[in-house]
Specification:
491 residues; Neurolysin, domain 3
């Protein structure tokens, strides 16, 4: 066998073990007994120790030195691009640090969930301080003298920088704020009213998941404190959550996670358990979850079909007709929770987190000042005070598990989704009629064929540009938002 063949055999085993580690994480958030937290942290640390050893195995250096990338086809070259980058990253992070991060974040996740339930920020801050310290050390190792936060962003969106993201957010903010002000000055649509039993919500979301193309033969839907998607290839799982007073929480969390899951399920099987067998970046991943959730799932055409499904499931819920339901689904409203935010205000939530976590990683914000900083910034950005920690700095799981640099990819995903939706509308004739009939296959099929199937074959911006025909930028998203909400609010 050639050095490349040997390397790929070794790589497949490493990635299979990484999938096993991911399954431990899924179990921890869904089914693990609460008393197993300490043992699970040891198990996660042991898995990370094995994985780090494989990623830095001396044979990796020998294989990489022996392979001439120019002699490979396009797929082989893309595999090598990912493997070389992953190897360089692993070599910069000491094994004991990688293991400690895995152990501490596993414990921190459970402590965050309990603190959130108890509305007790003080109980969470000591372990968050440990996580921040460990991640800062990791960032310093990866940055190698450069910007620590840029190194963290690169884990989720390769080649992206905080400066680029900050400039993009700066360009987006004025139009978003102006749109919000105009919308909030207009008459608000009616909200849904009633009791929505959790079991009926779960039955409806299972139907919605398959309607959007999720393959339950290779997946499953469970509940978690914070919805997420896990896995790749032939085992891709999602979670959601229910509120018996707010069915949209469950419905749109499910559709969002289905977008992530379908991306992973639709990647070419030839890439299974290789570096190309997963989504190329979190920004591109979020483009799929956000376009499923918003441009498709909250469209007037699709909500007309969903209105009938809601009536069948729940009976009368205070909305008389489909037009009113569409406006209710897209109601711009005061709220604290990012995952429940309307499209107009969602990116403002991300900008808040981006600035705070950047300050944490650069040492400009102390962990013990985080709650006050969050509350001050939220009041300044949204015009009202945070009422409790679970609606403030304890609402997201990301920081407890060390996902610093992840948050800005949500807004980047919205930007990518804007570009993709503009192309999708031009490429799929009769789209609105299909959505109105509950037929998502043409839309999701276009996304599958033009983006999802490629997995990690292309760079993030490249795969979006190949699919959409334009270089990624925020204008299509902002144009879409302004047109949509001007219509809903009759501006």
């Amino acid at each position: 066998m050639s050095a490349f063949d040997d390397l790929m055999v070794f790589q497949r085993d490493t990635m299979a073990l990484a999938q096993v580690a991911g399954r431990l994480g899924w179990d921890q958030e869904t089914m693990m007994p609460r008393g197993a937290a300490d043992q699970r942290s040891d198990e996660m640390a042991a898995m990370e120790k094995v994985l780090h050893a494989r990623r830095t195995d001396p044979r990796m250096a020998e294989w990489l030195a022996a392979i001439d990338d120019k002699g490979l086809d396009a797929v082989g070259q893309a595999q090598m691009r990912h493997i070389r980058k992953s190897y360089a990253r692993a070599m910069k992070v000491p094994a004991d640090l990688a293991v400690e991060i895995a152990k501490v974040t596993s414990k921190a996740q459970g402590q965050w969930a309990q603190a959130r339930a108890d509305e007790d920020v003080a109980a969470f801050l000591p372990v968050l301080e440990k996580v921040v310290g460990l991640k800062r050390r990791e960032g310093e190792a990866l940055a190698d003298g450069g910007d620590v936060y840029d190194a963290m962003i690169d884990d989720y969106e390769p080649e992206m920088t905080a400066a680029e993201l900050g400039a993009m957010f700066g360009a987006m903010r004025p139009r978003l704020v102006a749109l919000r002000e105009a919308v909030l000055a207009a008459e608000a649509p009616k909200a849904v009213e009633g009791h929505f039993p959790a079991d009926k919500q779960m039955a409806l979301t299972a139907k919605l998941a398959t309607t959007f193309g999720y393959d339950l033969h290779h997946g499953r839907i469970d509940k978690a404190v914070h919805p997420f998607s896990s896995g790749s290839g032939h085992d891709v799982r999602i979670t959601t959550r229910t509120s018996e007073l707010d069915p949209f929480n469950c419905i749109y969390s499910t559709i969002h996670e289905v977008g992530h899951a379908c991306y992973e399920q639709n990647i070419d099987d030839a890439y299974l358990l290789t570096p190309l067998g997963g989504g190329v970046s979190m920004g591109v991943h979020e483009s799929q979850s956000r376009i499923y959730e918003n441009q498709l799932g909250r469209s007037q055409a699709f909500t007309g079909w969903l209105f009938g499904q809601m009536k069948d499931a729940f009976g009368d819920f205070g909305i008389a007709e489909a037009e009113e339901f569409y406006r209710s689904v897209n109601r711009v409203h005061e709220g604290y929770i990012r995952t429940e935010a309307d499209e107009v205000q969602y990116n403002l939530h991300i900008m808040l987190r981006f600035d705070l976590e950047r300050a944490l990683m650069q040492g400009d914000l102390d962990v013990y000042d985080l709650e006050a900083a969050w509350n001050d910034r939220f009041a300044a950005d949204f015009g009202y005070a945070v009422d409790k920690p679970s609606n403030g700095c304890l609402q997201d799981v990301h920081w407890s598990v060390g996902l610093f640099g992840y948050f800005p990819t949500y807004s980047l995903g919205n930007v990518y989704a804007g570009c993709l939706y503009q192309a999708l509308r031009g490429a799929v004739p009769g789209l609105d009629g299909q959505l109105a009939a509950g037929d998502l296959a043409p839309a999701t099929g276009w996304l599958r064929d033009n983006l999802q199937t490629h997995g990690g074959l292309y760079e993030p911006a490249e795969v979006v540009e190949r699919a959409s025909g334009i270089a990624p930028g925020p204008e299509p998203l902002l144009d879409y938002l302004e047109a949509k909400f001007a219509g809903i609010y009759r501006l």
